[in-house]
Every structure is written in C-alpha cells, then in structure tokens.
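#data-curation
PF: Archiving a pair of folding outputs for the training set. Convention for this channel: one message per protein, sequence first, structure tokens after, nothing in between. First:
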Amino acid sequence: MKKVIRIVVMVSGGGSNLEAILEAQETGRLPGAEVVLVISSNADAYALERAQNHGIETAVIERKAFAGDEAFQAAILEQLFKARADVVCLAGYLKKVGPGIIRRFRGRILNIHPALLPKYGGAGMYGHYVHEAVLAAGEKESGCSIHIVDEDFDHGPILAQVKVPVLPTDSPDTLAARILEQEHALYPKALREFCEKLTVSGVQS
C-alpha cells in the first residue's frame, strides 16, 4: 500500500494559501497527500479557523511563550515529529525556521513568496513591503515563487514561478490582489508536483 505523504502547513495570518491547499486536497488535486496539521505562530490567525472548518488539527506555538528561540524551535519540531510530517509548507509564516528544523526536513520545506525571487526577498521582505518595493523600483513585472527553504530567508532552490504584469495604475493593494490570485493556483500545483516526485524517490520520515 502506497504511503500517504503527510503535510504540515505553517501559518501566521489569514491563511488564504492554506485554504487553496485544503480545497485542492478536497477536490482530488493533491492525490496521495494529506494535510494533517496546521501550526500557527499567532493565536489570533484566521488561518486557524480555516483549518478547523476543514476538520484539520491545529497547534499554536507563539515565540513569546518561550524564554529563547531554541525552545521555540524545539516545540515546533516536536509537533512536526508528533504529526509524522513528510513535507512542511510555509503559507504566510512570518517566523524564521530554525536550523534544527531545516536539517531534519532538508529539501522538504516549501515556501511561497509574493515576488519573482531572487528579487525582493530576504529579511523584512514580506506582504506589502514586497509590493511597495516592486512599485518603488518601477518594475514592469512581478509575480510569485515557490521555493525550497534553506537557512537564509527566501533563498533556496526555486520550484515554480508565475509572472504578473505591473500596471501603471497599480497600488500595493491592487498588485497584491492579482499576485495572490496566482499564488492560490500555483501553490497547490507545485505541491502536487513536489509530492509526486517525493513518492517516486521514496518518502523518508
């Protein structure tokens, strides 16, 4: 019997990309894979409600609850082990993933970023900060990227990208909205392709 790939999604905010992944799962567009846990760095994240609406187990692990970063990262790793995670998806997760987690899940942590990496990535480049920087630079196109997470912000190998034109009339809000629409299509597709390759090469938990 083929092993189901167990996915843990990590979030901090609204969770619209989480919603896109869960809808893909429920409509058969993520065959052989299942979201088994959603971890949030923010107890007030609407993503938690989205997860619960889909019957997905949730865990809140906030940095402020721990004396140091090492304990915070250890608590996340404990939840990943408990969930028997095969793949970790960052979906608007705003905390840096610690080196211990990256070592344990090397090559199996995915992130989505609202720009065409390697442009407009790195520390502090998230959400509207990205779109403001793109507009300030006079870029003619932007988009979104799915990449493998390594020890540096927004740095690992790129798996997929979609380009979105920047319009002369764009504000950060209008550009963000058009890119977000593409994110919702790209993340489930890239995740499916990643899981298919992982199945062929053999899942290691």
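PF: Second:
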Amino acid sequence: MPQYTYTARTLAGENVAGTMTAASKRETLAALAERSLFPLHVTEKQRSPWQRQRRVKTSELVSNLGQLADLLQNGVPLLESLGILSAQCPHPGLADILMDVRDQVAEGAPLDEAMHKHLDVFGDLAVSMVRAGAEGAFLEDALKRTADFLEQQQELKGRVTGAMIYPVFLASLGVIITVVLVVVFVPKFAELFARLEQQGGGLPLPTVILLGLSEFLGRYGVLVAALLAGLAFWLRRFAGRERGRLWIDRWKLKIPLAGPVFHGYAVSRFCRILGTLLKNGVPLLRSLEISSESAGNRVLAQAIRDSAENVSAGETLSEPLAACGLIPRPVMAMIHVAEQANNLDQVLVSIADGIDRRTSRQIDVMVRMAEPAMLLVMGVLIGFVLVALLLPVFDTMTMMG
C-alpha cells in the first residue's frame, strides 16, 4: 500500500509530522482524526526512482475492465464494483490503482478523470472510451468494447512477437559472432597481414576495412558501447515527451514496409471507435474528439482535430478528412457514400474490419520475410569477415604460384 507523509496539529497546538501507510488519502485522514490530530498537509510519498512497480499486463487490465462492465451491468454500484475489483485483484500495483480510482470517484471525480491520473496503466483508449460511455450513458458497453479492443491488440502483438523471436535471435547471434570475430580473432592476424603487405605491396580493400574496424573497436569499443547506451536512454526520455511522441509517430508512418501497417492500424482504430460512438448516440464533434485521442497516432489525431474544426463550420465529414491526406481514398469514398445514406456508424465499423484483415495479411508477409532477411544479413556479416581474412592469403598463394 502507498505511504503518506503528513503534517498535523495536536490538541495542544503543536505541529507534528510523520509517515503513515494506508490504502488511500481518505483513510490517512480518518486515522489522523482517530489520534486527535488535525491534518495540515497530507501527500502521498513518492516512490524512489530505483523502486519500480511491477508492470501491469494487458491481460490483467482486460480482465478487470470486463469484470467492471459485468458488475455494473448487473446493478452493482460503481464504488462498490471498484472496491470489489481492488480487493480481489491479484496484482498489488493494479489493486492500489483501482482503490485510488475508487477514492477519487468517492470524492466526486468522474471515472475517466480518475483513470486519467493513471494513464500509463489504462492508456488513452480506455480513458477516452470511458469518457464517452459516461457522457452517452453506455458505460458498461464502452468498458466491454475497450476490453475487446485491448484483447485484440494483445493477440496481434503476441502473434507478431512470437513469430519474430527466431529472426531476432538470428540477428543477435550474427551481430555477436561478428563482433567476437572482429575484436578477438582479427588482431591475431595483424602481424601476418603486416608481413604479407610488406612482401606483396598491399592488402585488399575488405581486409584494410576489417583491420581498421578491429583496431577502432579495440581502442574505443567501451566508449562506443557507452555512447549507444546513452543514446538509448536519451531516446527513451525523448519518447516520453509530447514532442518526442509526435516525432516518433510521424517517423513510424514513413518506415518502409512497416509504415503502411502502422498507418492502417491507426485508421482502423479511429474508424472503429468513431463508429461505435456514433452508434451509441454521441454527437459527431464529440465523437471526433474522442476517437482522435484514441487513434494511437498523434499525426493522425491532429489531422482529425483539424477536420473537426471544418465540420463544426458546416462541412461534411468526408471533405475535411480527405483534405488531410492521411485517410486512404477508398475509405474516404465509403465515408462519403455513408454520409449520404445516413449509415455512417455501420460503414465505419465495416471499414475497420476490412482494414484489420488487410493489415493482418501485411503482417503475415512481413513476418515470413523477416527470417530469410535475418539469415541473409547474418551470412553477409560473417561472410565479409571470412573473405577479408582469406583474401590476402589467396593473393599470396597466387603470387607464389
């Protein structure tokens, strides 16, 4: 359970300070009152930067969201439902978060605002869907759909991860073998190559490159590793900022082969959520705002928000969306027809299903191509080292023959 630091005043008028472990700030205040202490300042004690909370798995979050939807659908009040989930949750970190959400709701905060304070756990999608569900009086359905979306996303991620284990292993093995050859074995041939160079008048270009690389890594290998580690740390910090996330999302759309997959996934997510919100009676402008926050790509989200401004000026949805250039033309054509036929919510969900099927096929092709590509890279790296080592010997034998 979290710890709270407090400053309180006794009945004698003296100030006292201390630390207390409690399930919530409300319980801390109650415990101080039982001790006849008047609280002046109560704050949750911050975690040490070296003390990391165990990560909440998507499967655990999906299970709790689904159970919350079931409890609400069967008439259990929200506060009681959150308390039940917190008490029976096997993940201690998630249990504390659920209890904190319950306490915030008990103090008058909307459920989506309480969840937004733990955005790193619930994510933009869950918070946006809960906000829409609370506003449109379909909270139970919003929670169930969110759980379904997260489960589908987890299944896709698990399938890709499982298929990429062997290619990544091959790539890692190839890099390790190459580095060991360059750093450990190549220097042992340096003296031989020096004699051959004196006798024959020069070394082949691959051998010169290999010797230079070996000497560089031998001298500055530790520095290079430290720089790479520092770069990785900086990139992680940069990715945690809004500017960094926007830059990464823009870069993701430009990656060869993978860019269309990221693009299709974001468009599918936007269409599915927008269709779900419209189907449940949420106004178009509000639906656009929520679905843009849930698209999973900030570049697309910004384009959708810009389009919403034009929609509010009286235009149809298809015209400003087409102008942003991020929605495929076939999708825009279907949206345009659906607006005229007044069945936009159904068509949007159908579009999302079609994009998901196409994206799934693209992922399957990429995964099948990854293994031979990694084998090729591994063979090229090791083959270059071997050729660079053997070329001087072959040249010498040719001259002697």
